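Forgive a beginner's question, but would it be possible to get any protein sequence you like and the tokens describing how it folds?
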Amino acid sequence: MKNINKEDSIGSQHNEVNKQSAQRSIAVFAAEIMAKFKPPAFPFPELTIHLYGLKKSSNFILSGEHSDAVSDLALAFGDNFATHAGPVIWIGCHSEIITIDARLQSREARVERKGPATYSLLDDVGKIALTRAAMRIDTLPLFAFDIDQGIDGEFLEELEENIQSDLPTLIIVEQALFKDLNQSVARLENLFQMLDRLKITNPDNRILWQLPLAKKSGNGESSMPCFGDLNELRLIENADVVMFVQCQDSEIPVHAELIIVKNKFGSLGCIPMHYDQTFSTWLERTLH
């Protein structure tokens, strides 16, 4: 039997510490490597479990009877993605784009903001919160483009210079582009031309399509949406995931559900949510 003196004991303890440190280092290194290959997550844990994440080259469709709720949910996805993953490119119409900053600031600062005059009515705490929110949002790689301005060669060159990236990129297509039939042909032509260029300049891309419902319930009650309520059949066929937003009541915040009806990456399901239109805020709702 080997005798263990004090020096041997100290040396043994050092070896054990070094061994544990090495194990921790390997675990951290492995986690970092896995994180590089793991798709960017959604801002809602249960949704991420169902879909695993926003995978590269995937197409997600989001729709629902309440267009404001759909747009605010897309904005929540975009805010989270720009904060933690990479550039977000929002393609839409002027009337919607000009509201994005105000809605993001309202979400961040928890300040109701219905118009420019609202700012002057805030107390000092509210003004500080809104200012801090604006400063954070200005640092985000979030770009908005008005499709009605047209897509010419000079614009595409500027687009390529300013927002090309090897980082994961989320492209959000606004539902308003599909609503006005009189303008939809020109808009969609510009849209798909822009998307073709973005797929080249931002190879690690994924697209979130907001689609309006083609019809609404006429009896004043919210009915369960289905594929037949959507017009863009080609997009539905090519979509990896299709989700419907359904709001259940009119109280603030409203009880809502995010219903996954098509999912190539995982399971279908219904995720309970809370939606507060006052602050453009979505949260997962626990059933306990």
